Amino acid sequence: MLKTIFKRLLQLIPILFLVSTIIFVITRMIPGDPAATMLGPQAPVDAVEQLREELGLNKSIGEQYLIYLKDIIKGDFGRSYQYGQSVTSLLFERFPNTLLLSIVSLFLALIIGIPIGIISATKHYSIFDYVSMIIALIGVSMPIFWLGLMLVLIFSVNLQWLPSIGMGSLQNGLWDFISHLILPSVALATIPAATFARVTRSSMLDVVKEDYIKSLRSKGIKEKSVIWKHALKNALPPIVTVIGLQTSSLLSGAILTETIFSWPGLGRLIVDAIQNRDYMLIQGAVLLIAFIFVFINLIVDITYLYINPKINYDGKGGDK
Amino acid sequence: MKNIKRNIALLLVLVFSLTLIAGCGDPDKKGGDTTGNGGSKGVKDPTTVAEEDKFGGVLKIALSSTPKNLDPILYTGVYESNIISNVCDTIVNYSQDLSEIVPNLATEWTSNEAGTEYTFKLRNDVYFQKGKYQDGRQMTAEDIKYSLERSAKESSLNRLGMLEKIEVINEFEVKAYLNEPNAAFLTALTDAGNSIIPKEEVEGHGDKFGFNLAGTGPFALEEFKIDQEAILKRNDKYWAQKPYLDGITFKFITDRNQMTNALRTREIDIATDLGGESVKIVKDDKNLKLQEVPGLHVAYLYMNLMEGPTADKKVREAIIRAVDIDEMVKGIYQYDEAQRAYLALPPGSWGYDESLEDLVPSYDPELAKKLLKEAGYEDGFSLNIYTSDAPARVKMATILQGYLKENLNIDLKINTAEWGTFSEIASKGKADIYGMSWTWYPDPFFFLNKMFHSSEIGALGNGQGFNNPEVDKLLDDALKITDQEERAKLYKEALKIITESYARIDYSNEKVIYGFSPAVEGFQMRADQKKIFVSEDINVWLND
């Protein structure tokens, strides 16, 4: 198993190299001169020229690419043009905020989605099953930005229970911190929660029909134990896959959610960087996200190994 | 049985959905007191509030973009200046109505005959806010020299390029030498980019000075969190008067809907840059106040003067006459967020000349057709218009497309791009027509020289290649004299030639529109969008 993990880690290197090259090419292909964009419509021509020189934009693309690669290997992502700060420090200032939002949302989605899926499967064709599955269907098809706006209208503007924008600070007390987190994380958790509920239900339904469940029941083992211990364990692999997929897409969802709730995370930073042609910042941020993506996939694969040792990524023996 | 259950389930879901939809309704119609722990109930009659009761409270104001760098010489956006100008002072300012330059850190000034030397007398009661590298020392002539020369040499937008050097005459008197006569010098000095700052802090903090900005203004910067907020605290030693407010928090909210929502929930006290439906929402909410002033703003369509059919003046006149500009403006600004424009200068500028408005060709489709025929384009042609992807520009292009097709059989292809892409195409003269807007200081120099002087061809201001030696000369001459009335005369002459050249359609002056919670007292809106909370005449306070 360790060997597999190590191998997968090695695979990260070519992937990230490829990603960094693609990002470099794409950012250069977006039309618009970063120097002119940054300085705005009223910039004198000589000021724009001077900035181009400072930023190294006068060098050939090949030269720029070599410098970029060399810096990345050194772990230096350059300086953001617009903020005048190192990209690394900007990313690490913001990343924890996105991570917090994503983890809370994932947690919410798990504790809501999976139990609902299990109960729906065990109480098949009950009212609970119908209601929760229809809501789940609405949930997966709900655009996040619409849901976010509705949540703000209901809970902030009309009821005035929760703040509508920004991130709270622990310095202002625990409630300030939590209250700012509720609406964005609920908005972000909706799609994954609904997905988890649907997948858990169908996976569980498949499992409870199996003969060994019947035999467990016939042995007189408690229903609770049959469902939560035996059935759930065997229903897990598809659920874990979906958790992995949803975790990755939480990141893209976070970008929208952050925009709606003025949450100071990576998403807003990237959108702003693209609008302002902040090459260095775009490159650094996309690389970071690519890394997280690949990393989550790695974790999912490792989790498979753990929950189902029969899976073998080396392709030697076992039923792949 | 199954069916009954399914029906019950559907019913429950329906109820759930209705609850959601109810959230979209107008909260005011629900009656009761849903919209306001603030509301108007806590507000007292401002005339009866005792002086000492006006002190206290933190005002929260939202800016519609994220400031990036608060170092005066490094800022390039618009929004940074709002924060900088509350922390720092400039030596002169524009008066509240923007008609003249008034004293600030400098009490009086004189210039020599040639307009190349300016002598300023300074206040002797001004102190810097305490920082890490100085303990709130007095501001002197040396600081003026340091700050302005730093800007002249290092400003990323070249805001003080005309300044050669500053000479310290005595502790409270300086003399500025210009490279050549430049009447826009005083206006340039009003820019937050030319704020007076303490050398110790700049050098001590280095790259991080933007996060540790210090100056002589009414509020001191306590914390600047990129993408979130800038927190300012009262400067008790402010020279003009003691601020009523304990502090100001600038919140950065890029979406108008979010901003209006935050205003309704009292998470902010002032929402700036309202437009579109947000204007209506604030207007309709009886717990909020809406205020507007005409902005120093012109939105225009600039036609290519160097190549293509629009290089022909007759074609340009035909295009102008084919568009009912009044109707177009009504169509673009459904919530009355702008007034119809005529000239390339906003009416708020002191170079504006109402008598020139008649020179703008009026709507006359028949004459337009005839002109196009005379120009040899009887069957029409196709043109490309470029605009940014801002909703107001896209709407404008669509309306224009209708008029040109209907009246002149011109096929207008609409190309929208986000700002970076757009500005590159427009400044290189690659567009047949481009639509954008211009907003800057009240001095006509910042409109006319930047958009019509031949030296600006290739920059975004004059991307379409306006080139008229007579205009160049008038604009140059207007810079060489310092008397504002004399200058205005020259600018009006230039503006006349510009208007008669039919180079553009100047269609709207957008208004500056803010929403306020009723608690805000004493705030005065300005056409230049400067947000002044405390000065010699202004002291904003919170009535709650």
What's a concise summary of this model?
Chain A is mostly helical. Chain A contains twelve helices and no strands. Chain B has helices spanning 2-22, 79-87, 141-154, 185-189, 199-205, 256-264, 277-284, 313-321, 325-332, 365-374, 391-408, 419-427, 445-452, 469-480, 484-500, and strands spanning 58-63, 92-94, 101-103, 106-111, 117-122, 163-170, 173-178, 219-225, 229-234, 247-252, 270-271, 289-294, 297-303, 338-340, 382-388, 411-417, 433-439, 504-516, 520-521, 541-542.
Description of the molecule:
The complex is a heterodimer of chains A (320) and B (544). Chain A has 320 residues and is mainly alpha-helical. Chain A has a domain at 87-307: MetI-like fold (Orthogonal Bundle). Chain A has helices at 2-29, 34-39, 45-54, 61-73, 87-122, 127-141, 144-158, 174-208, 211-218, 223-261, 266-275, 279-307. Chain B has 15 helices and 20 strands. In chain B, a hairpin with a 2-residue loop joins β6 and β7 (173-178). Chain B starts with a helix and ends with a strand. The interface between A and B is large, with 59 and 70 residues.
Q: Determine the strand fraction of chain A and express it as a percent band.
A: under 5%
Which segments of chain B are poorly predicted (pLDDT under 50) over 5 or more consecutive residues? 21-40
Q: Examine the secondary-structure arrangement and name the CATH architecture of the domain at 87-307 in chain A.
A: Orthogonal Bundle
The CATH C-level name of the largest domain in chain B is Alpha Beta
For the residues shown, what is the average pLDDT of chain A? 83
Distance between the termini of chain B: 60 Å
Morphology of chain B: globular
Keywords:
heterodimer, A: 320 residues, mainly alpha, MetI-like fold, globular, B: 544 residues, D-Maltodextrin-Binding Protein, domain 2, Dipeptide-binding Protein, domain 1, Dipeptide-binding Protein, domain 3, twelve-stranded mixed β-sheet, four-stranded antiparallel β-sheet, 20 strands, 30% helix
